Amino acid sequence: MFNLILFGPPGSGKGTQSEKLIAKYGLKHLSTGDLLRSEIAAQTPLGLEAKSFMDKGQLVPDEVVIGMISSALDNNPNAKGFLFDGFPRTEAQAEALDKLLKLKKTAIHLMLALDVAEAELIKRLLGRGKTSGRSDDTNEEVIKARIAEYHKKTTPVADYYLKFDKVKHIKGEGTVDEIFEVISKEIDGKI
Ligand code: AP5
To answer: What is the CATH number of domain 2-27+79-188?
Structure first.
């Protein structure tokens, strides 16, 4: 089993690269953002609660996303590995994920962190907001709040995995294919 975290700020390309990675390596893609947007679309109580945080650019409470990931792991017992996209985003989520994976006698093998300058992140997200229908992409203030949440609560997650020597930084600017090639080399060196 091979378990990968694709890490980075909003707009750094996690979702874009994940699509290519799951096709190449056959990992199960677990994106907490996508799972939350499905709950919103289905108008579940969880979705309605999450939306109030997402619309402000704030993180959804830990217990909500940890519960979703726990169910997703249980629902995919035969996966050859997981690609975590947008999770974990706090140290509490990282600790919970380690415990959940340990119960399944596995662990995180690698975290790839995409580094992109803030001006480029804002440009990409505002660009996507014109067509995506994502309410958190249309307002620059909300985008800046998401980036601020990332710096305050999510960057410590990289330090958490650094302690275990599991983090590699990747330049997240350039063409999608160029970045994919660098990411693939890192994975091939570990898998
Ligand atoms: P989430 O859905 O995870 O969004 P995000 O982290 O804000 O990331 P994005 O999907 O916006 O960006 P990305 O890095 O995937 O980039 P992408 O490939 O899409 O989270 C949304 C919200 O849900 C959070 O704010 C929070 O409220 C909540 N949430 C989710 N997970 C949570 C958790 N674990 N805990 C608590 N709350 C949680 O690319 C972005 C754009 O750039 C696209 O238009 C793409 O085409 C373009 N692009 C990609 N690569 C390139 C490139 N190389 N060059 C030029 N453009 C590019």
So the answer is: 3.40.50.300
